[in-house]
Amino acid sequence: MVVDGDTVAWIGSEGAADSFASGVDEVMDLAGALVTPAFTDAHVHTTATGLALTGLDLSTARTLAEALSRTSEYAAAHPGRSVLLGHGWDEARWPEQRPPSRAELDAAAGGRPVYLTRADVHSAVVSTALRKQVPDAAGLTGYHPDGPLTRDAHHAVRRAAHAAVTPGEREAAQLAALRHAVSLGIGALHECAGPDISSEDDLTALLRLAGGRPGPRVFGYWAEAATKAGDLDRVRALGAIGAGGDLFVDGSIGSRTACLHHPYADAPHTGIAYLDAAAVADHVAVCTEAGMQAGFHAIGDGAVASVAEGVRKAAERVGPARVRALRHRVEHAEMLSPATIAAFAEFGLVASVQPAFDAVWGGVDGMYAQRLGDERARTLNPYAAMVRAGVPLALGSDSPVTPLDPWGTVRAAAFHRTPAHRISVRAAFTAHTRGGWRAVGRDDGGVLVPGAPADYVLWRAGELVVQAPDDRVANWSTDPRSGTPGLPDLTPGLALPTALRTVVAGHTVYERPNE
Questions:
Q1: Percent helix / strand / coil, the chain, rounded to 5
Q2: Which DSSP symbol is given to 106?
Q3: Which residues face 465 on adjacent strands?
Q4: Which of 165, 176, 238, 389 pairs with 51 at a CA distance of 20 to 30 A?
Q5: Alpha-carbon distance 274 to 288, whole Å?
Q6: Angle formed at CA 351 by CA 350 and CA 352, multiple of 5 degrees
Q7: What's the CA gap between 173 and 176, in Å, rounded?
Q8: pLDDT bucket at 468, cuts 50 / 70 / 90
Q9: What is the mean pLDDT of the segment spanning 305-324?
């Protein structure tokens, strides 16, 4: 491969490459390393990821008692912090099967302000001291005097907690996240920002930071609904490329706020609907007429159906071809029916999905089964049906909900806990590389061909194989005579590839020490 500036200039045989050797500035002997396009993580919260990397991470706490103990230790180690921020607790994985109470949190933190988000980031436990900083929260929907806060109460307290992060702390967190991303072979991130998630300052600071130094490309989204053209002025002013990302149609399954057609198996309600089909239609129509990509966060079957219905109504107003051309997005899209899959394919909706959700919460004993029952849980994240229907996939992590882990994400899609939903390693890899570029409207990236952006990674990997999900899928492709390129063996239990060097736009942005 020959790279000219920020572009791939040539790819061919080793023999033919010898003729270029005298005319280039540098020749790199790969010494057997695998070269692939850099990964794109299609759904990230960068500052929150950095805060989790550098702060109080409760994702590996095995019990409620351990989570409280870690909180106490963190509070003692950071006496100067005005608000203690933590992330990742998941009561569904604890033997106690409940979150911390307010009294327990107050005791663990010595009465200091504390904000701890659940793993899905759709609810949080909050100390008394922080609640007092937001006295109006008690009158908002989603307020609970002792338990986790959801909905508007959670959003209000989150804004207060994040306001305590200084610009210097925010930049340090963002840098930590960006550096971690490139160390994993991630060359681009889709930042899903919005007024209920982060802040305008957070997004503009991130885009400025990423644009001013070598590192991963960052494509920003701003999640604010539009009913008229002027509503998109803020999106443009912030430097975002689309009005979407986490524009909430519903919440999450773990917090029982995803909008369902039928009640939860462990709660007597169907979750929350923030936007209905009419609001979806308005947003998609306004964005389409302005030539801007729209997008939504939709997880439950009720929410996904509202998106499908709303997009159809928008297409009736502005024309289906114009809707398809913008590649509007749906984040998460976990509970789909054959009808909604068909609608995604019909209108060219990009499904921005997170296979690690299934790896963490799927299976007969997982959180999905607890919340929905076994039968509904087995329908979640039907990647194979989506691929067969022609739905474009872009893979991501929703970090810090699940960690940045590109090869682990590909493995989770190829070895889905429900075998019928598995896709080939090649299909998952393509969705995590080229799929992420196509999701931002660019068809030139995520591949290594002449003219493509020079975003690539050198890997230390084991044997290269062609893996299909099972014997019924693409048997022909496993035959070496098919010419299908191999990828690392991602069979569960085997070590994942290690990034040796990550290159973005022709610049080395990460090099593994001592390699």
A1: 40, 20, 40
A2: H
A3: 487
A4: 238
A5: 21
A6: 105
A7: 5
A8: confident
A9: 98
What is the pLDDT, as a whole number, of residue 466? 85
Nearest-angstrom CA–CA distance, 213 and 463? 35
**Average pLDDT in the 457-476 region?**
75
Distance in angstroms (rounded) separating the CA atoms of residues 408 and 490: 8
Which of 140, 161, 182 is where one domain is finished? 161
Cα gap 397→360, rounded to integer Å: 12
Evaluate whether residue 406 is within a structural domain. Answer: no
Looking at the fold, whether 155 and 59 belong to one and the same domain comes out as: yes
Q: Please give the average per-residue pLDDT across 97-110, as a whole number.
A: 94
**Encoding tokens for residue 448?**
């290594």
Token digits for 316?
């009736």
41 assigned to some structural domain = no
Strands 498-504 and 507-511: antiparallel
- 297 contacts 247 by C-beta, under 8 angstroms: yes
Residue 87 CA to residue 81 CA, distance in Å, equals 16
Query: 220 pairs with which residues across the strands?
Result: 191
If one counts the domains in the chain, the total is 2
Q: Is the pLDDT of residue 473 over 60?
A: no
Owner of token pair 């610009």? 167
Which domain range does residue 129 map to? 55-161
Tokens of 396: 């991501």
Please state the separation of Cα 432 from the chain's center in Å.
11
In angstroms, rounded to a whole number, what is the distance separating the alpha carbons of residues 235 and 70? 39
Structure tokens at 146: 């002792």
pLDDT by residue (tens digit) across 247-257? 999 999 999 99
427 is written with which tokens? 């299909």
Q: Quick check: is 316 in a domain?
A: no
My answer on whether 20 and 76 are in the same domain is no
Contacting residues for 159 by C-beta, under 8 A, at least 6 apart: 199
CA dihedral 306, 310, 313, 314 (to 10 degrees): -170
Mean pLDDT comparison of 27-31, 74-78, 150-154, 297-301, highest-scoring range: 297-301
Q: How far apart are the first and last CA of the chain?
A: 21
42: Cα within 13 Å, side-chain hemisphere:
34
Average pLDDT of the residues in 90-96: 93
Last residue of a domain, one of 112, 145, 161: 161
Cα separation, 47 vs 53, whole angstroms: 10
For 492, the 3-state DSSP assignment is: coil
Structure tokens at 404: 């940045």
Whether 83 and 132 map to the same domain: the answer is yes
Residue 62 lies in a domain: yes
pLDDT class of 479 with cuts at 50, 70, 90: low
Q: Where residue 104 sits, what CATH number does that domain have?
A: 3.10.310.70
Residue 491 in tokens: 């069979």
